[in-house]
From TrEMBL:
This is MarR family transcriptional regulator. It comes from the Bacteria. PROSITE patterns: HTH_MARR_2 (PS50995). Keywords: DNA-binding, Transcription, Transcription regulation.
């Protein structure tokens, strides 16, 4: 009986330990996302909503061509919501729409040079915030090790 309790505790501890790195990784990613979003909001430049950013990133990070209908299906939102997001992205010259010459009922979403530059900027900010977060984590580990010793 005592052995069974010990085994259950050991199993529970192992499960908790296996989740810890995932939680730590998720915490780091969420921190990087927060720091990136704060940097984007603070700087001079377009301030996109979550939906607009999702549409933008989907168009720029996935190679295949995109349509309003396809984006709506992929992001699980209505076509009018995609249209509003694309209206804003078009105002900022981050994306543009063009009628598909092969199927005039379909609207294609095209990338722009300004949009590509904006994506480079996002990547740069994320790289910087990720590097800072990594250094902060290393510093905390060193301090914790010193205290434990």
């Amino acid at each position: 009986m005592a052995q069974a309790k010990t085994t259950l505790r050991t199993t529970a501890a192992a499960k908790a330990a296996s989740k810890a790195p995932t939680n730590a990784t998720a915490d780091k990613l969420v921190g990087t996302l927060r720091d990136t979003m704060v940097s984007l909001v603070r700087r001079d430049g377009p301030d996109l909503s979550a939906r607009q950013l999702a549409v933008f990133l989907t168009c720029y990070l996935q190679e295949e061509g995109h349509t309003v209908r396809g984006l709506a299906a992929e992001l699980n939102v209505s076509k009018p919501a995609i249209t509003r997001a694309l209206d804003r992205l078009g105002e900022l010259d981050l994306a543009r729409r063009k009628v598909d010459p092969l199927d005039r009922r379909s609207v294609l979403v095209q990338r722009t040079l300004k949009g590509a530059a904006y994506l480079r900027e996002i990547r740069s900010i994320m790289g910087e915030t990720s590097t800072v977060a990594k250094k902060e984590t290393e510093t905390r580990v060193v301090r914790a090790t010193r205290r434990a010793a």
